[in-house]
Amino acid sequence: MVNRLSWSWIALMCIAPLPVAASVAALGWRRNESILGNLAGTLVIFGTALALILRESVELDQLTRQCLNAGLTCWPHPSAFERYAIYAAIGLLEVMALFLVSLAVERRMRRRRYAPEWQR
Hints:
This protein is mainly α. It is about 75% helix and about 0% strand.
């Protein structure tokens, strides 16, 4: 595991947080509190990324400790930083996607207030 990425956890980061965050954010969006909705959704996404980074850190620490106890020196490949950066980058992309969805929702809600003949 020291020389491989955790593809199942990376896939989980790619799939799960954005729909959950959008559902949480929609609660704020429906009440015309788009900033609070975006903040709640962002917390879900970044919280998931942080939890997966911490999980990866604990796993790498255990593997490194096993190597040291066996009298070996082993370095993870890719490095710990690269592994953490993968989760952080996915989280950042998901937050940007959440904000783009928020803009579309706000635009739709704003247009609802005007009569159809005034809309372009």
